[in-house]
Amino acid sequence: MCVGTCSRILGPCLLTLSLLSITANIFLLFPSWEWQYLTMGHITKNALIVPGVWGGGLLVLPAAIHITAFGWRWSSARNSGTCQNMFLSIVLSALALLGSAACFILSGVGVTEGPLCLYNSTYNQSKMQQWDYPFLVMDTPPLNSRTQNYLYDPSLWNSVCIEPRNVVAWNIYFFFALLIISMIEMVLAALQIINGFFGCICGFCDKK
């Protein structure tokens, strides 16, 4: 594929994905559209780290904007040489690759650990309610089997966490969305790095 044509495809795709990543992470901060849990600090730590905002979003945006501008020959991109623009796209794409990889890892940890929520626990044979990560506390009924994984048992999603409402499904859906988005971003950023090397060697090549 021509270097210029490839840039015109990869740039807008990365731009769209970065905006989707930011949006998905913002939704994680407001489980079931409730804002009070954020003000109380009862939000899953991997959502509060906002990997979708800075990792899959802000670190990808510069590469997406530059690649789009160069691919569509916007006036700001025409002022510099092809090799210079391509080298800059390689650097920015490498930064986007690192950001999306960080988002992928942290989102995977968020899915594995499960959400922070209010649940019924047992302490010194007395029952109490507390805020914690119930799917990491292995002695909490019905999670006292170390082989049990809540991801494969949807019946646990609404039976364990009391508040926020539907927080387990909410976290799973949006963390999985971040996983998919960041995985695609990594692939596209890697492709643009390869495309950038070809651009430095072969030029824009639209008319070749």
TrEMBL record:
Keywords, in A-Z order: Membrane, Transmembrane, Transmembrane helix
GO cellular component terms attached to this protein's record: membrane
Domain of life: Eukaryota
Membrane topology annotation: Multi-pass membrane protein
UniProt xrefs under InterPro entries: L6_membrane
Residue intervals passing through the bilayer: 12-33, 53-74, 86-111, 172-205
Major subcellular site: membrane
Entry's localization field: Membrane
PANTHER family xrefs: TRANSMEMBRANE 4 L6 FAMILY MEMBER 1-RELATED, TRANSMEMBRANE 4 L6 FAMILY MEMBER 19
Family: Belongs to the L6 tetraspanin family.
Record protein name field: Transmembrane 4 L6 family member 19
Gene, per the UniProt record: TM4SF19
